[in-house]
Amino acid sequence: DTAVSQTPKYLVTQMGNDKSIKCEQNLGHDTMYWYKQDSKKFLKIMFSYNNKELIINETVPNRFSPKSPDKAHLNLHINSLELGDSAVYFCASSQEVGGPTYEQYFGPGTRLTVT
Amino acid sequence: DAKTTQPPSMDCAEGRAANLPCNHSTISGNEYVYWYRQIHSQGPQYIIHGLKNNETNEMASLIITEDRKSSTLILPHATLRDTAVYYCIALTSNTGKLIFGQGTTLQVKP
Omega before A100 cis (within 30°)? Predict the structure, then answer.
């Protein structure tokens, strides 16, 4: 059983296009996240949603818009793609926001290449 | 959230214990120490976390010094599959925001 899944796994597109990455978790968690890992391998949080409500927005360009139709899904839509958006994007989920029993479970990642 | 410092790389012989250190000298009383790892091209994987006491689970042990300024992650019998980047993170429990540093690249060698 896949706990956190992402589609697609690879995405190659041209500058200026609009694309979406989907994330689903079947763990019954209330909180979901998007992370970006750039070419230097630094992993940085972008957004966090708790019960479909945005709780973390880390100075991400407004070309990036997360959408959470329900607690099990958090999709990432990117408008007007730029070369610098090329990266691996990871989705994650957790039962709580912080707390003593708070672990994040990550998806396999989506490698986005903008040409 | 407190800053953590880890050595950039370490080697370990297969079957031996791997001891990965982490300094978090500015950690505050309500910040937990979390360890994650990222095996090549995969999503990060939770390993273990603790506040004050030493912790052990099926993957690893976490030893936290009494002053909480440093900790050590111990993989008791490292295998080749443990080759990964290991991240030590000091987390305040209110936002759930994991801040990943550069981590320690552990190379387990036959």
Answer: no
Quote the CA–CA distance of A76 and B63 in Å, as a whole number: 38
Residues B95, B87: Cα–Cα separation, whole Å: 19
Mutate to test the interface with A, among B52, B62, B91, B93 (most CBs of A within 10 A): B93
Q: How far is B34 from chain A (nearest CA, A)?
A: 9
pLDDT digits 0-9 by tens, B53-98: 999 999 999 999 999 999 999 999 999 999 999 999 988 666 667 8
> Do the Cβ atoms of B94 and A97 come within 8 Å?
yes
> Is-contact B32 B43, C-beta < 8 A?
no
Give the pLDDT confidence of A45-86 residue by residue, as tens digits. 998 888 878 888 887 899 999 999 998 999 999 999 999 999
